[in-house]
Amino acid sequence: MSERHDDQRDEEEEAEERSAPAARVVHAAVAEQGEDELDRPAASLFWSGFAAGIAIMASLWVSGALRHYLPEARWAEAVVALGYPAGFLIVILGRLQLFTEHTAVAVLPVVRAPTRRNLLLLARLWSVIFVANMLGTLIATALAVHAHLQPADTLAGMVTVSEKLLARTPLDTLMQAIPAGFLIASIAWIRSAVNSGDFWIVFAVTYTISLGGFAHVVAGASEAFLLMWAGQASLGWAIGGFVLPALLGNILGGTGLFALLAHAQVRNELR
């Protein structure tokens, strides 16, 4: 009898190990990560965000190189889109601060406890990371255009990849940034729910963003600022025509949709 009881307990333990964690467990893990981000010193957030703004340029470098080497064909854009995850892999797996990924994570502790202190910490986190990300992309794109960091053919491919932004209205960018914000915010949730495969999670989600033509404020800012430094767009267009609409759309998608819905599904289960 004891033997059968032990076997049953072993089976139950194995079943528990093989089961995906409950939604409230994932929620707690993501919220804990968000609390850690909220408590980090402003200087740490800034330099991490600045590094992320530079590192996200890898997406544009790889995409531009692919655009240069590929022929003009209907399928070519799907291959060029494979370059888009490069910068995100460096930033997210390297634990750098990217607006929409870590900033969406930080919303959960605020939703759970919307105190004045938490709201101020969230505002500080958002503002510091966003400014740092923008400065990083602004400087990196200036160097890409004027310091010859890459071959001229690759730069030409980068400009070609970026030119698609010029066809969008600010409203188009706003609406296309909502799905991007939602998808990027989902990365932290998915990574907390599984034990491995971080590379493929980030790759699949960010490739989806590129393939779908969605707008991410930081990756897109690198394209907008590149066009500005290359003389194909003005600073006013880069900020007002792309960055601000993309910022609003990403916030709506990442915070207004994903973070709030992720909390809503477990709100009645929290103690």
Automatic annotation (TrEMBL):
TM spans (from-to): 45-66, 78-98, 119-145, 174-192, 199-219, 239-262
Membrane topology: Multi-pass membrane protein
Keyword terms: Membrane, Transmembrane, Transmembrane helix
Region annotation Disordered: where it falls in the sequence: 1-24
UniProt key word Lipid metabolism: no
Alphabetized InterPro entries for the sequence: Aquaporin-like (IPR023271), For/NO2_transpt (IPR000292)
UniProt subcellular location: Membrane
Signal peptide location: none
PANTHER family in UniProt: FORMATE TRANSPORTER-RELATED, INNER MEMBRANE PROTEIN YFDC
Protein name: Formate/nitrite transporter FocA (FNT family)
Species, as recorded: Sphingomonas endophytica
